[in-house]
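Structure first, sequence second, as always.
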């Protein structure tokens, strides 16, 4: 169906399908958390989509992951 193709393209755009494994498949197969998955997502797509903005988003999630691992409030990490 045409609607299925449109929905599939919106959910899985080309910048998530590079290489031998789709980003969402990589994230789920490695049982990553939401935060970890977003780091992978933004780093994977930054060249094709939003450039520096995506790298900043990835950094925000990476800082958040570090915070959760260290159990330190985000404002104390600056």
């Amino acid at each position: 169906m045409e609607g299925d193709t449109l929905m599939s393209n919106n959910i899985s755009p080309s910048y998530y399908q590079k290489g031998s494994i789709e980003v969402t498949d990589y994230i789920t197969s490695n049982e990553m958390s939401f935060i970890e998955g977003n780091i992978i997502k933004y780093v994977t797509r930054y060249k094709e989509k939003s450039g520096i903005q995506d790298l900043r988003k990835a950094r925000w999630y990476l800082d958040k992951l570090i915070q959760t691992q260290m159990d330190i409030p985000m404002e104390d990490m600056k």
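Margin note: Residues 56 and 70 are 21 Å apart (CA to CA).
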